[in-house]
Amino acid sequence: MGKVKAFFLRKDVVFSAKRYGIDALGAMALGLFGSLLIATIFNAIGLIPGLSFFKTIGSYGASAAGCAMAVAIAYALKAPPLVLYSAALVGMIANSQGGAGGPLAVLLIAIVAVECGKLVSKETKVDILVTPFVTVFVGGALSILLAGYIGKLVSYVGSFIGWATLQQPFVMGLLVSVVVGIALTLPISSAAICAAIGLSGAMVNGAVPANAEGLALAGGAAVAGCCAHMIGFAVMSFRENKWGGLVSQGIGTSMLQMPNLVKNPRLWIPPVIASAITGPLATCVFRLQMYGAAINSGMGTCGLLGPIGIVLGWFGGEYPATVGALDWIGLVLVCFILPALLCLALGALLRKISWIKENDLLLPQ
Q: What is d(CA 321, CA 253) in angstroms, rounded to the nearest whole number?
């Protein structure tokens, strides 16, 4: 047993919550930001007339996300070069097989594949063959065997959201906003979930979906929940992360806070409460409706695509009412101003009672 422990120590394979739940998870979030999320921002810029080449660049973001996340995880686990490079293929397979649970599948499977690759690295004379073979075989096999089940587990979140869309507006707004906001921050794809259950009143294949208004209102609530988390964490952590953190979380992703949430789950209290307030406001007071693409419902302020989706629905010919000043006021309040004010106030209260301590919200570098 002592020899095995010594071997693992020599290979820097250390089983710890910090290494896997904080270091690897934080790196994965950065990998996602450097691929899919920055591509999403490019797509948003590409909507500006004359700048469509940005959209061409951004269109490749989804295909690169799995690779980028897995390589980032391998880097955080201090993988040797051959393992690091082989992780790209593992990430592509896991992300593809995992569906809406792709990021979570990449996290779990890449960790196992990378650690196995590290164990065999430089142990044979044909290392250039053995190391990538083991890394990719372990990661590929686990992806085929398990990633689909991980995606299925995540699909239950979608089923719950689908059930919530059928409730009366206040309950629906609260549930959808809170659940989709949390999903946005977790290592799963809120955008894929919203797209899968069609969280929009827009026509599908030329036909208006059943319960179109309910789906459109649910889409507005989902945008509210996502914005509450992104704007909320961005503003709440400004003391630690300054302008770079404000931008990277506010128009990037609140998933960057996941390593900190693992250490201190109470950080989630302000954005969850904010989403529980703004969701019902979106559905019952301002009646914000998503008639843009359903995927935008799960994007929040990432590339500003959540609010942009609502606005495009207003002027795309499918929004069934005249757009007035109240619509614009509601959009700005629900997506930007209220999440910022609520999370600032709640964050200050939690700091005062020491539930949030200095640097608890500091982003991984």
A: 32
* Start-to-end C-alpha separation, the chain: 36
What type of residue sits at position 130? V
| Length reported for the chain | 365
| Residue 276: φ, ψ to 5° | -70, -20
Find out whether 309 and 216 touch, Cβ atoms under 8 Å.
Answer: no
pLDDT confidence of residue 1:
65
The two tokens of residue 197 are 């259950």
Whether the Cβ atoms of residue 151 and residue 101 lie closer than 8 Å to each other: yes
E-strand stretches of the chain:
none
Angstrom distance (rounded) from CA 140 to CA 96: 11
The pair of three-digit structure tokens given for residue 92, joined into one six-digit string? 């592509």
Distance of CA 215 to the CA centre of its chain: 21
| Distance from C-alpha of 278 to C-alpha of 273, rounded to nearest angstrom | 9
What tokens does 78 get?
């201090």
Under-70 pLDDT residues of the chain: 1, 204-206, 208, 317
- If phi over 0 gives left and psi between -120 and 50 gives alpha, with beta otherwise, what is residue 304? left
CA 318 from centroid of its chain's CA atoms? 28
Q: Which two tokens stand for residue 309?
A: 């989706």
Distance CA 117, CA 122 (A): 10
Q: How many CB atoms lie under 10 A from the CB of residue 18?
A: 12
Distance CA 89, CA 85 (A): 8
The token pair at 293 is 């693409």
- Is the distance from CB of 187 to CB of 103 less than 8 angstroms? yes
Where do the structural domains in the chain lie, given as residue ranges? 2-152, 165-352
| Residues 6 or more apart in contact with residue 350 via CB below 8 angstroms | 266, 269, 270, 356
Q: What is the mean pLDDT of the chain?
A: 90
pLDDT (0 to 100) of residue 206: 66
Residues 267, 260: contact at Cβ < 8 Å?
A: yes
Provide the pLDDT for residue 336: 97
